[in-house]
Records
---
Amino acid sequence: MKLKFKKLHTTVVNNVNPASIINFLFQEDVVGVNDMRVLQKCKDDPQQQCTELLTLLHASDNPQAFVKLYVSLTEESHLQWLIDRIDSFDLIGLQQQRYISKPTGECVFKERKIVLCD
């Protein structure tokens, strides 16, 4: 879930008003008191506030942070399109890491394990 939100970061920042989501995450103990204070400082700029929130969640050690964020988004009926996009996001393409082979200059794909849950 964390990887999906990272790949959709700009879409989330540009389309989500974080006010109710922040309150839900506080209620669910994902966001603490100090985090709430920081997030309230930029309440007049929803995009900045959303960026701060996502940054905070990416830095969090809470394994449920992005699951709870997803749940909070499902409560916002006008964001159903975003939930659909998150649900259908293709992680298979993210399972390969592309790099350029220095000796040959070829494009090489290297398999890597993707953890789908936080």
---
Amino acid sequence: MGYERARIAAMQGYVPGKQPTSPDVIKLNTNENPYPPSPAVMHAIHAVLPEALRKYPSPAADGFRAVAAKVHDAHGLALDNVVAVNGGDELLRMAIATFVEPGQRIGTVEPSYSLYPVLAEAHGSPVFSIDAQDDFSLPGDTAERMNAAGVKLLFIVCPHAPSGQLTKVAELSRVASAFKGVVLVDEAYIDFVDPALGHDATELVKKHDNVLLLRTLSKGYSLAGLRFGYGLGAESLIAPMLWKTRDSYNVDALAQAAATAALENRAYAQASWERVRSERVRLRDALAALGFRVHPSQSNFVLAHVPARKNARALRDQLEQHGLLVRYFDAPRIDDALRITVGTEAQNDRLVAALQTLLT
């Protein structure tokens, strides 16, 4: 007889992307940045003294939060608008614990990040989902339908996962204005958006007291192994998470040092973002030439529907036999597609060459 709660015993946990068993395997299934982090990050880690490890770190990561506020000060954000978290996923859990009573509904627009329903189930909150439009954009009546269902916290991924579709700031603002609960905009992939689009949702933090933005250093800053992220929101949203529902000392001394250095050296990371954007276009065109239907993406991945004569799951498995990991989701509307992380030029060339072989 087990001791876990009945709800936990009955639920299914989050299923992460498969990990490679050999250094020769190319990992294009979990959306890491293919380029290394800034040397300044490694220097900051090496500079941490033993005394800093003997003692507890800054509880609220004030040094990092000050740098993050400075990065986003164009829209008047300050220290009280920032909370540091142990990976962006911790912010999701904190938001649920802070703003949703067990039994109250959490909203998603499907398909979406598969961790959302897992966290909701563990909290004891049912998920109310609506379908995204054919191009994976938000339905025009998203807020109204969520309000009618009694949703208290709405998750919106922007750019969307798994398609890469970008929701305009004006549309996010319209949803926030009409929605009666908290809107968490998951911006895990925001660093890869084309700068020419001028997309910047941080203005919503000052405009709406119910908008919480999730940022992570896992993707754009090549620090997925560090597990560090942060939230941006009105002080009334940040304060209860920062001082009540946040785990004590939730981000360690090494992580704080590395994350601070990463933000202070954004120019280095920005150069990798541009390389990813360039490869994204090249990969998209190569896949299209092979017969894939590829969605326009503003992320560091593409969603590619396989040619009609092929089975997506089988093609995923065949690629694995060639030493290439890509992601397949057995879910409505995307079960005929593969989500492929944009790799380096050499990695993308190897992927395309393998697909050419498998599709002939």
---
Amino acid sequence: MDTEVNAITTLVAEDHETVRLGVRALLQSQPDIVVVDEVTDGHTAVERSCELQPRVVIMDVSMPHMNGLAATRAIKAATSGTGVIAFTRHDDSAFVSELLDAGASGYVLKQSPGGELLKAIRTVASGGSYLDPRVVEQRAQANVHIQPTGRRISERERMVLRRMAMGLSNKETAFELGISVKTVEAHKTNAMRKLGLGGRIDVVRYAVLQGWLDDR
């Protein structure tokens, strides 16, 4: 494929065909953006990013084989000039923080107008960072920081949240881990506060993002 010297080379990683085709059509309508490849899973996204060295990768968060979080980490570790934009319908603060911590330079919601994705691509391609205005507004209203926090949950907190996501009760978790129910509740509260998770649904989403449920 011949590309203009100054064109923003972009790789689209999205497993849903309808969304992928829509993104491709949007990008191909822009004279300064060139789609160099489209992939449908995280492993392939990493492989093709290493081969093609695109300036920007549009990264779906939920994909088979390797999710967008793991793929983002791998791409940032293996390439030097490729920026990653997380492209997802999830506006959970935990998702935003984890993707930024993994090295993503942009975060755009699929439900936002296409113009937001174009702004993100051009901003990231020029070395900047971009957050969807809807994410910024929601986090501001909730008084949640949207920059990488560096706050990590402990291993015991991770074990408790994983079991919560799997559907275990506090009593069952306490029995498995050999701790009291009150300690389970304390670990759960602390971990959810650190990650900005509001309830069990958020915990399950976070567990899927982290791949905690893959080896059940």
---
Amino acid sequence: MIDMQAEIFSTLAQINRDWFDRAKSEARLASELFAKLTAAHSVPDVKAAYQEWHSQRMQMFADDRRRFFSKSQKFMELGLRFLGNGNPGATR
């Protein structure tokens, strides 16, 4: 039971670190967009800056989705182990 709690805590801590890193990446991306828009001298420059920003955001969303499903699966596995008292063949 203690090992399971430690594993749950570890998973939650990793999720927290992932979201903190995601927030930092989001702030960095916004800052880069602002710098590019400030330096833009033409409409094509603005368009290119927004296209690059949008492409990077879509990649971040894909990464978020992948992480979410991975962590959700891990929680479900932990829950099933808890319900089975750590015995893979046990059912309630």
